[in-house]
């Protein structure tokens, strides 16, 4: 297994995107926190990552290397909305 994987990360609405090479031992939660901070996403909202190729929502405690990512996969940052939220 390679030490790094190249990915495209983007917001669900497509307004922000970034091509990155990340260590495979990085957790989904760490990636979400870094993305939220770098893109100045609202801190009062929680986010999930979805693998565009499969539609799978990724477990925050999993590492990039453990979720079956392929080179140049696209990960979407999605706000975690609760029913009834406005």
Automatic annotation (TrEMBL):
It comes from the Bacteria. Residues 5-84 form the Ubiquitin-like domain. Pfam families: Rad60-SLD. This is Ubiquitin-like domain-containing protein.
